[in-house]
């Protein structure tokens, strides 16, 4: 594969793929927040353990 | 007898005799890294072992990087096998709070824009004559993520490991100097003054616990080759958020990254042997690394401007610059710049969200690159 095709493929698919994947992730993150809403009286839920 | 004594004595001087000017130059480079780490405080945890490794490996006749040499053992066992960068990621995941990102998921897109520099630099590296796999390694400096850069480079262009890792870590520490001019050049004073509302919305514990598992499954289905990196960072984060493995979390936050950082640093320093490092390609890699980070910042800020436009001025474009993996420096830079133009502006939490998005984004971008390479039959 010549450098031009390789560069184009990597740049377009790479940039597009990264943006698309992270957009998909934002959708899942929104769904997750709807599925597990913060209940009244619940803190931030920061799950730090006591070592 | 006198001849025996003379021979024995001359052996003591053999190191001096074997020393070349190139090795002296590289020892000076090692000392420069030590100075930057110790006196200037730039990434001392990394620059100190890297700088010392560079000095050690350029001392003649030590055999440290020859077969069975101590540094060769560290390098072969930890870097070539990609074990060190993956273990570092467990620590990064354990220390990262994805809370600000979960509060405002759309900020994750800034973490994608912050990776565009990787691909643009890759194209530039190809134009400058690097081979295709070398260009991938050079481009990944734009991830602003040391372990990712090491992981990809050791896989595809181990001959560039020294310059790529030095560039990745040095520029990461120079983010506070490199980013502000780009941020100012691409934004108007009015945009920089935009005050972002604090998010009142909090995130429940189940969301925090499920998040790392979900991210692992989705991202690894999209880009399976990125699984070692994403899997490890999310394993570390799951340990943090689950709250049930305190001992493991303690190790992931302290002992594991401490030991691995030491071994990784000295192994990278060991790749800075004069005959491999003093080349025209090294200078080009360092230059392209700089370009990569500038392009990342520019792409992030421009995407921030787009978000600002779409949200009718609710997003300050400066937080776009934090969409890189240099955590938490890039977020602090956005906060500092924002406060310069509006004293009542607190961008830190939003910038932290973009910054953690940048961590996910950089690993995702690397995973996608590796998967494309595999698809093209080069991986």
Task: For the structure shown, list the relevant keywords.
heterodimer; A: 51 residues; mainly alpha; 1 helix; 0% strand; disordered C terminus; B: 379 residues; globular
Task: Explain how this protein is built.
The complex is a heterodimer of chains A (51) and B (379). Chain A contains 1 helix and no strands. Chain A has one helix at residues 3-35. The longest helix of chain A has 33 residues, at 3-35. With 51 residues, chain A is mainly α. Chain B has 379 residues and is mainly alpha-helical. Chain B has 21 helices and no strands. Chain B has helices at 2-12, 14-18, 21-38, 44-57, 70-79, 83-95, 99-103, 108-113, 116-127, 132-139, 146-156, 161-173, 175-186, 189-193, 205-222, 227-242, 246-270, 274-277, 280-310, 329-341, 348-375. Chain B is globular, with a radius of gyration of 22 Å. Chain B starts with a helix and ends with a helix. The mean pLDDT of chain B is 91. The chains are: A mainly alpha (51), B mainly alpha (379). The interface between A and B is large, with 38 and 61 residues.
> What integer is the average pLDDT of chain B?
91
**Radius of gyration of chain B over all CA atoms, rounded:** 22 Å
- What does the largest sheet of chain A look like? none
How much of the sequence of chain B is in beta strands?
Answer: under 5%
In quaternary terms, these chains amount to: heterodimer
Describe the main β-sheet of chain B briefly.
Answer: none
What are the segments of chain B in which pLDDT stays under 50 over at least 5 consecutive residues? none
Shape of chain A: rod-shaped
What is the H/E string of chain B? Answer: HHHHHHHHHHHHHHHHHHHHH
Helix content of chain A: 55-70%
Mean pLDDT of chain A: 82
Explain briefly what this protein structure is.
The complex is a heterodimer of chains A (51) and B (379). With 51 residues, chain A is mostly helical.
Map the helices and strands:
The complex is a heterodimer of chains A (51) and B (379).
Chain A: H1 3-35
Chain B: H1 2-12, H2 14-18, H3 21-38, H4 44-57, H5 70-79, H6 83-95, H7 99-103, H8 108-113, H9 116-127, H10 132-139, H11 146-156, H12 161-173, H13 175-186, H14 189-193, H15 205-222, H16 227-242, H17 246-270, H18 274-277, H19 280-310, H20 329-341, H21 348-375
Helix pairs in contact in B: 3-4, 4-17, 5-17, 6-11, 6-16, 6-17, 9-10, 9-19, 10-11, 11-12, 12-19, 13-19, 13-20, 15-16, 20-21
């Amino acid at each position: 594969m010549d450098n031009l095709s390789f560069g184009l493929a990597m740049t377009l698919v790479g940039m597009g793929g990264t943006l698309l994947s992270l957009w998909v992730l934002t959708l899942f993150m929104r769904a997750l927040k709807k599925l597990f809403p913060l209940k009244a009286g619940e803190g931030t839920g920061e799950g730090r353990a006591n070592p | 007898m006198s001849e025996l004594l003379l021979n024995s004595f001359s052996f003591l001087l053999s190191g001096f005799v074997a020393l070349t000017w190139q090795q002296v130059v590289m020892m000076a480079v090692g000392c420069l890294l030590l100075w930057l780490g110790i006196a200037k405080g730039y990434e001392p945890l990394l620059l100190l072992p890297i700088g010392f490794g560079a000095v050690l490996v350029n001392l003649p006749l030590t055999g440290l990087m020859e077969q069975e040499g101590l540094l060769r053992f560290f390098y072969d066992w930890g870097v070539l096998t990609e074990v060190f960068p993956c273990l570092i990621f467990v620590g990064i995941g354990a220390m990262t709070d994805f809370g600000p990102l979960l509060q405002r998921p759309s900020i994750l897109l800034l973490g994608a824009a912050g990776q565009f520099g990787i691909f643009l630099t890759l194209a530039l590296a190809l134009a400058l004559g690097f081979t295709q796999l070398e260009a991938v390694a050079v481009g990944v400096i734009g991830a602003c993520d040391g372990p990712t850069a090491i992981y990809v480079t050791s896989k595809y262009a181990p001959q560039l490991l020294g310059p790529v890792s030095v560039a990745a870590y040095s520029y990461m520490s120079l983010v506070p100097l490199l980013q502000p001019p780009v941020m100012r050049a691409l934004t108007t004073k009015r945009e920089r003054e935009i005050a972002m509302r604090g998010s009142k919305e909090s995130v429940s514990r189940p969301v925090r616990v499920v998040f790392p598992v979900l991210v692992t499954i989705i991202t690894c289905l999209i880009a399976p080759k990125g699984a070692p990196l994403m899997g490890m960072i999310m394993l570390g984060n799951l340990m943090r958020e689950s709250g049930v493995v305190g001992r493991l979390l303690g190790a992931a936050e302290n002992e594991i990254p401490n030991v691995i950082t030491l071994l990784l640093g000295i192994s990278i320093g060991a790749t800075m042997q004069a005959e491999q490092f003093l080349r025209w390609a090294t200078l080009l890699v360092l230059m392209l690394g700089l370009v990569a980070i500038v392009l990342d910042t520019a792409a992030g800020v421009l995407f921030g401007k787009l978000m600002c436009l779409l949200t009718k001025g609710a997003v300050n474009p400066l937080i776009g610059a934090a969409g890189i993996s240099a955590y938490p420096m890039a977020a602090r830079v956005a906060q500092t710049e924002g406060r310069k133009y509006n004293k009542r502006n607190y961008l830190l939490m939003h910038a932290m969200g973009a910054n953690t998005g940048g961590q996910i984004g950089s690993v995702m971008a690397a995973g996608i690159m590796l998967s494309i390479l595999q698809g093209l039959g080069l991986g």
